[in-house]
Structures are given as structure tokens and as C-alpha cells.
Predict the structure.
Amino acid sequence: MAKPRSSLLALTVFGLCAACDQQKPLVYVLEGPQTVELTATASAVVVPRGDKVELHVQRRTSGQWRQVRLDEVSTGQCWLYRPPPESEAEVAGEVRWKVSPENAVKFDPTVRLDKVRTARMATQGKITLTPVSTVPCEPNRTVEGPPILIEAS
């Protein structure tokens, strides 16, 4: 009796594996331009020179993504395993920061799990920090958020 069950089990497993080999992974391709919005805040906007400020950025992304089989993607076409999240609560550690005047802050190089970015005010005066984000599958495009103005005394 054990022999027919073993054979049946082996055939079932073999059949499932053969079906897996025939399926191509599903991916997402962008069908048009995306909208990316950044909202930036700081833990303080008036600080003594040399103090640290925590920078925060929220990112909202929307766009049309179409799910296709990987073998349907054109050569050179950008694809993702899943579309970018519509809302990200904290991305300050993932964006680039434009600083004016140049070298007015020193960023802490520590990568934080909470994705907050810490900056020490290196000079006195008004310092402008502007978050800049890349846009998924649009390699030549970046989006700037509203600047944060910090007064360092």
C-alpha cells in the first residue's frame, strides 16, 4: 500500500515543480509620470551654533503602475517588484539635502533605523536645508521639498 502513495506524492510534487518553472515573476512597470511630494520639518528652528537638529521628511508618491510578467519587460525598461509606497512616514535619512550657505551644517554619518537625519549647525546665521528626493524609474528626475529655515546663533 505504501508504494502507490509514494508514487502519487512524487508525481504531485514533480507536477507542481514543473508548473513553477513555467511561471514568470510578476513585476511592475511605470505607465506615466509620477507625483512625489516631500514635507520637511526640524526638531528646532532656532538653535545655538554647534547644536544638533533632527530633520524629518515625509514622502507621498503616486503614479500609474502596471503589473506584467518579467519576460514582457522591454530591454532597458525600468521595473520594480512592487510599486513605491504611497506614503512614507520618515525618509530624511534617504534623501539628499541642499544646504545654503554651503558647509553650514555637518551631517551625522550614522545611519539610523528610524531614518531620521541629524545635523549640527556649524555656522551662525540663517541656514536653509532643502530635501531632494530621487523618483523611482525616472532616473534623470529629482523632486525638492519645501526648505527648512534654521537660525543658528
